[in-house]
Amino acid sequence: MVNLSLKTIRQIAEEQSVSKQTIRKQMDDEFRQLYVSKEGNKLLVSELGEKVLTARLSSSGDDAKKRNSKMQTGKSPVDVFHEQLAIKDQQISNLLKALNQSQQLQAQTQERLDSTNEQLQKLLKIASEERKLKTQIANGDKGTVTQQVSDEHKKWLARFFSSK
After folding, report:
1. pLDDT tens for residues 102-152?
2. Residue 54, pLDDT above cutoff 60
């Protein structure tokens, strides 16, 4: 015997123009204990339960209307995205500036390192020649030593030691 005041979730969903899932989400455990009975594999909602569901659906519908009206009175999503895009563009610009500065600093450091290495190589060459000359002097070959010291080395040594 079927009670006419009981309705299925499907019937209520069709009357309210919502999905069955929406109706099920509104039915918590307490609601099921008070207003729902089961007949086979169908859930049947009492007339009072239907009224409670209708009230819950209308209040949740009001919440959705409030959210929509807030969006309409505020900025549109497109405007919000444009603002976010402008912020991201500024962040990218700042990062590019920092990257360029870093690359310039790296290039300057590399130039200094190359210059220092060049000077070091020259000094090592001079030190090597100086050792050879000292060895020749120690062996008593002063005549060839004087000839071997070129004017270029003398000038370079004078510049190097006088600048410090």
Report:
1. 999 999 999 999 999 999 999 999 999 888 888 877 777 655 555 555 666
2. yes
Position 142 in a domain: yes
Contact 25, 19 (CB under 8 A): no
- Output Rg (C-alpha) for the chain, integer angstroms: 46
Q: Is residue 109 part of a domain?
A: yes
Write out pLDDT tens, residues 76-98: 888 888 888 999 999 999 999 99
What is the residue range of 154's domain? 77-162
Q: Are residues 118 and 153 in the same domain?
A: yes
Residue 2 lies in a domain: no
Residues of 141-159 as b/e, b for ≥16 C-beta within 10 angstroms? eeeebeeeeeeeeeeeeee
Token pair of 70, please?
A: 């807030």
Q: Name the one residue in this structure whose structure tokens are 């007339």.
A: 47
CB crowding 74-94: b at 16 or more within 10 Å, else e: eeeeeeeeeeeeeeeeeeeee
Domain count for the chain, please give it. Answer: 2
**Distance, first Cα to last Cα, the chain:** 114
- Residue owning tokens 């090592």: 124
